[in-house]
Amino acid sequence: MYVAVKGGERAIENAHEWLAEERRGDTGIAELSVAQIREQLSLAVNRVMAEGSLYDADLAALAIKQARGDLIEAIFLIRAYRTTLPRIGHSVPVDTGAMACDRRISATFKDLPGGQVLGPTFDYTHRLLDFRLAAEGLASAAPCAPAAEAPMPRVTGMLGRDGLIQEEHDDGAAPRDMTRAPMEYPAGRDLRLQALTRGDEGFVLGMAYSTQRGYGRNHPFVGELRIGAVPVEMEIPELGFAIEIGEVVLTECETVNQFAGSKTEPPQFTRGYGLVFGQTERKAISMALVDRALRWEELGEDNVGAPAQDEEFVLSHSDNIQATGFLEHIKLPHYVDFQSELELVRKLRREAGAEQMREAAE
Amino acid sequence: MSLLARAPAARLAALVETLGPLPEHDWLRRPETGGVMVRGRMGGTGGAFNLGEMTVTRCALKLADGTVGHAYVQGRDAAHATRAALTDALLQTGRAAEVQGAVIGPLAREAAARRSARAEKAAATKVEFFTMVRGEDA
């Protein structure tokens, strides 16, 4: 039960003033600019854009600064801002096959057309703290090599030519949008992918890991992982044709999964799909594994009761803003609720006490 | 329009500056920032799904001679959108060749240079495999 209470205004105001002071920290240390966060903490910015579900690096960097580096708080700020934006329209689906790849690797084919391109990766680093970074003024220039404008065909397309992988069909249907209508279950793959791409990285990672450990195992290989910029096109009504309205960096992961066939499908490889804003490969791989696990029904697999196969469980707990909102609200004043609980416990104890007295007397 | 949409705001401002005083215009639609839902395809090639929004600013204006300029630019910069729409309008007037040379040409060259600079760094991280000669083959 909620009742309006007055009071605490000055305490709240002072708390916010102190918050601002703590955010700034020691004024003897130079202040961090939004541009510095955008350029130098870019993977944090990417995560806030992906889970805030709004591609705008300057806003994400500002949110990180305002939230003192608390990324879920920053995502909350972006989600709140997003709701104030009028919806101009939607893009033509992006063509990730035409991506200008910074990174493109395959764990299934060594010698694939276009090659294995590592890009700016943490892989193969030794995970030793680099104390040179503690010294300022280090700038390094990446080596260059002549770039061949060779196409980088999809690995799944190569398997598809031989009919070895389940095909994707475009039925031309307009996808449903979870930000416009309440979720309904069963949700279907379009809504699942939308929820997963904006879902909490830790939650989606945990779900994906659970499938690898045997809770709904589906034997994934990373068929392909690519990171790079793709143009975004939109149909402009007043022009009557589509133009590019910008460019976004995306991470795409396509898994190839072992599949022995089922009552409805022949033996072939199946797919899991991850596509996420920014350079966010842990999230994209996790998304692909969870997407594949949630497809058990359409592929005629058994539901073994694994958490990652339960669409309603996964989708209704993947959003960190919903989760943190409900979780953190319990710290806000519940004085009246608690008073009634207190009254109840006292009454029960009185009754139990009276009962004991009566029994003892008998 | 694509180049204008993706151009860095400060760079477009500097290039438009070189055109001298810009013509007067009336607004058909004042700059307005909103969200565009970016869509992807399931499995990369299948049916569409909603990936998330991006910020876009659009506007439309009319020059004194009636030429209409439109702009849709990424981000939230109203001045950037205005410059893009003015450039779009001027490209349909007698000053098209001048604007092409002073604004669009440099933007196109710089966008290509940025793209190839990244591609060259990526190419330097391309893996060259070599196979060890095994004992029984030697």
Description of the structure:
The complex is a heterodimer of chains A (362) and B (138). Chain A is an alpha+beta fold and 362 residues long. Among the domains of chain A are: 9-82, no CATH class; 96-120 and 152-166 and 183-320, no CATH class. Chain A is 39% helix and 15% strand. Chain A has helices at residues 9-24, 34-40, 42-52, 57-66, 71-82, 155-161, 189-197, 201-212, 281-294, 311-317, 320-328, 335-361, and strands at residues 54-55, 87-90, 100-105, 220-236, 241-257, 270-277. In chain A, strands 3-4-5-6 form a four-stranded antiparallel beta sheet. The radius of gyration of chain A is 26 Å and the shape is globular. Chain B is an alpha+beta fold. Chain B has one domain. Chain B contains four helices and three strands; from the N terminus they run H-H-E-E-E-H-H. Chain B has helices spanning 2-6, 9-17, 78-90, 96-124, and strands at residues 25-41, 48-63, 68-74. In chain B, strands 1-2-3 form a three-stranded antiparallel beta sheet. In chain B, a hairpin with a 6-residue loop joins strand 1 and strand 2. The longest helix of chain B is centred in the last third of the chain and has 29 residues, at 96-124. Classes of the chains: A alpha+beta (362), B alpha+beta (138). At the A-B interface, strand 1, strand 2, strand 3, helix 7 and strand 4 of A face helix 1, strand 1, strand 2, strand 3 and helix 4 of B.
